[in-house]
C-alpha cells in the first residue's frame, strides 16, 4: 500500500467512526421520526399512514401506552418500520434494554433479528458474548432474543416485545387447535417474560376473529391501542380518508387494489382490510336479513321448532343457544326467538326447561347429539328433563358450512325473516362473521332449526 492510499484509508476509517458516533448520538437523543429520516434518507417516510404509525410508536416510547396493535396491508412497510427499525432505534436509544421479537416460526423471527442487528451494529459496537442470529447482546447489558411461536423464552426478560405475524396463513388461523396453541404460547411463555414496565406491539393479519388479537381485545379492550389502517378507507378512518381511498395510492392505487381483490376473493378482506370477512358478510350477506316487527296477521303457521346447540361452560368458552323458528303455509320461515348464554350444566338445563314451558307444547324441541355413547346419554337425560314435550335428537354430519348452506340459500332469495328483538344485533353479527367468526353457536342452532322444519328426512327421525 503506498503512502497516499494509506492516508485515504485512514480518512475513510475516521469518517466511518465519526458517522457511527454521530448516528449513535442521534439515535440516543432524537425522536424516532427524526432518526428514521436521518439514517434512512432514501426511504419514503412521508406517507401519512407511516407518519401516523410513527406517532403512535413514539407514545409507546414515552410511556403513554404500553400495548399497541398495528393492522396494515401487506407490502406497506409495517414490518420494516415497526419490527426492524423501531426495535433497532430503541436499542440504540437505550443500550440496556432487552428486546424480544416473535413471529410464526423461528426462521422469520431470526430474519428480523439479523436486520435489527445489522442496523444496530452500524452505529454501536456489539458484544462478543452472544452473536447468534436468534440471540445477541450489547456491551451495556441490552440485547435481543428472536423466537418462533411455540418456542420458550426462558432466562430472558423483555422490556419491549414485538410480535409480528404469529399466524402464517388462513389455514392455520382456521384451525382451533392452532389458535389455542398460539394463545397458550402467549400466556405461558411470552407473557411471563415481560418486565414490570414492559411494552408490547402486536402486528398481524386478522384472518380470524378468535385470533390472538381478538382474544386480547376481548379480555383487555381498554388497555390496547389499535392502529387499523385498511388498504381502502372505511367509516371512521383515523387518517381522515374518504371512503375507499387507498392507503398508499402511489404503490397500490384503486385499479391495483381492484385487481388484487378480484384475485384473492374473501381473503382480500383479511389481508388488505384487516377483517376476517367482508363487510357484507361471508356465507351470509347483510342485505339478506329482513327484520320484521312480527309475523303477518294472516300468517298460517304450520310448524315451530326450537333447536338447541348446547355447551357446558359457565362464564366462558362456547355458548348454549336455542333458536326458535316458525314455518308458514306460504313457505316463509321466521326466526322468532334466540336464547343464549354461557351457563353451567345445571343452569343450562333449568333455562332449557323454562324456555320449553314458555314456548308451549306445540314447539318441537331438537337437540344436537354428539357422537358416541356420551351423546346418547345426554339426549336421554334431556328427554327425561323435558318430559311432556316433543324432544328429538339430531345426529349431525358434515361440516358446519355445509349444514348452514340450506339456510343461507333460503335467506338469499328472501324466504327467511327475523322478528325484531334485542338479540338481533348479536345474531346478525355472528352469522355475518361465519365461518371465520369467534363463535358459531347461533349459526349452528339457526341452521338446525331450519333443517328441522324444512327437510326433516335429513334428520334421523320423522315427526309424528
Ordered list of secondary-structure elements with their pairings:
Layout: H1 3-29, H2 32-39, H3 48-61, E1 67-71, H4 78-93, E2 98-103, H5 106-121, E3 131-132, E4 135-137, E5 143-148, E6 158-164, H6 170-174, H7 176-190, E7 194-203, H8 212-219, E8 225-228, H9 254-264, H10 267-271, E9 290-292, E10 301-309, E11 320-328, E12 333-341, H11 345-359, E13 363-369, H12 372-385, E14 391-395, H13 400-412, E15 416-419, H14 424-433, H15 441-454
Parallel strand pairs: 1-7, 1-8, 2-5, 2-6, 6-7, 9-15, 10-13, 12-15, 13-14
Antiparallel strand pairs: 3-4, 4-5, 10-11, 11-12
Helix pairs in contact: 1-4, 3-4, 4-5, 13-15
Structural notes for this entry:
This protein is an alpha/beta fold and 464 residues long. It has two domains: 42-229, P-loop containing nucleotide triphosphate hydrolases (Rossmann fold), CATH 3.40.50; 286-458, 2-Layer Sandwich (Nucleotidyltransferase, domain 5), CATH 3.30.420. The protein is built from 15 helices and 15 strands. The strands form two sheets. It has an eight-stranded mixed beta sheet, with helices on one face. A hairpin with a 5-residue loop joins strand 4 (135-137) and strand 5 (143-148). The longest helix is centred in the N-terminal third of the chain and has 27 residues, at 3-29. Residues 456-464 have low confidence and may be disordered.
Amino acid at each position: 500500500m503506498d503512502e497516499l492510499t494509506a492516508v485515504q484509508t485512514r480518512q475513510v476509517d475516521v469518517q466511518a467512526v465519526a458517522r457511527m458516533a454521530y448516528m449513535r448520538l442521534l439515535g440516543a437523543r432524537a425522536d424516532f421520526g427524526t432518526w428514521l429520516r436521518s439514517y434512512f434518507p432514501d426511504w419514503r417516510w412521508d406517507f401519512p399512514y407511516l407518519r401516523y404509525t410513527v406517532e403512535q410508536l413514539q407514545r409507546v416510547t414515552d410511556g403513554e401506552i404500553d400495548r399497541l396493535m398495528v393492522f396494515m396491508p401487506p407490502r406497506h412497510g409495517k414490518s420494516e418500520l415497526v419490527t426492524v427499525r423501531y426495535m433497532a432505534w430503541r436499542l440504540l436509544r437505550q443500550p440496556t434494554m432487552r428486546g424480544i421479537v416473535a413471529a410464526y416460526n423461528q426462521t422469520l423471527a431470526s430474519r428480523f433479528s439479523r436486520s435489527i442487528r445489522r442496523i444496530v451494529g452500524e452505529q454501536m459496537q456489539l458484544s462478543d458474548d452472544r452473536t447468534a442470529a436468534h440471540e445477541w447482546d450489547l456491551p451495556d447489558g441490552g440485547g435481543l432474543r428472536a423466537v418462533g411461536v411455540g418456542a420458550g423464552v426462558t432466562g430472558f426478560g423483555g422490556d419491549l416485545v414485538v410480535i409480528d405475524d404469529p399466524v402464517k396463513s388462513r389455514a392455520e388461523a382456521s384451525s382451533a387447535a392452532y389458535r389455542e396453541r398460539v394463545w397458550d404460547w402467549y400466556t405461558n411463555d411470552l407473557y411471563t417474560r415481560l418486565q414490570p414496565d414492559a411494552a408490547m406491539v402486536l402486528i398481524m393479519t386478522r384472518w380470524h376473529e378468535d385470533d390472538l388479537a381478538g382474544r386480547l381485545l376481548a379480555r383487555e379492550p381498554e388497555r390496547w391501542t389499535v392502529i387499523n389502517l385498511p388498504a381502502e378507507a372505511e367509516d371512521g378512518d383515523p387518517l381522515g380518508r374518504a371512503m375507499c381511498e387507498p392507503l398508499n395510492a402511489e404503490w397500490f392505487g384503486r385499479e391495483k387494489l381492484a385487481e388484487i381483490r378480484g384475485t384473492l376473493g374473501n381473503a382480500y378482506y383479511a389481508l388488505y382490510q384487516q377483517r376476517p370477512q367482508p363487510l357484507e358478510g361471508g356465507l351470509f350477506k347483510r342485505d339478506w336479513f329482513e327484520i320484521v316487527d312480527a309475523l303477518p296477521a294472516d300468517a298460517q303457521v304450520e310448524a315451530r321448532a326450537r333447536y338447541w346447540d348446547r355447551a357446558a361452560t359457565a362464564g366462558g368458552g362456547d355458548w348454549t343457544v336455542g333458536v326458535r323458528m316458525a314455518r308458514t303455509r306460504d313457505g316463509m320461515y321466521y326466526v322468532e326467538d334466540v336464547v343464549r348464554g354461557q351457563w353451567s350444566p345445571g343452569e343450562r338445563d333449568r333455562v332449557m326447561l323454562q324456555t320449553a314451558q314458555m314456548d308451549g307444547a306445540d314447539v318441537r324441541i331438537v337437540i344436537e347429539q354428539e357422537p358416541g355413547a356420551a351423546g346418547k346419554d345426554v339426549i336421554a337425560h334431556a328427554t327425561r328433563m323435558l318430559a311432556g314435550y316433543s324432544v328429538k335428537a339430531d345426529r349431525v354430519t358434515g361440516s358446519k358450512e355445509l349444514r348452514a348452506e340450506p339456510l343461507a340459500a333460503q335467506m338469499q332469495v328472501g324466504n327467511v325473516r327475523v322478528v325484531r328483538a334485542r338479540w338481533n344485533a348479536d345474531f346478525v353479527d355472528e352469522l355475518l362473521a361465519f365461518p371465520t367468526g369467534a363463535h358459531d353457536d347461533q349459526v349452528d342452532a339457526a341452521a338446525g332449526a331450519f333443517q328441522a322444519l324444512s327437510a326433516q328426512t335429513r334428520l334421523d327421525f320423522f315427526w309424528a
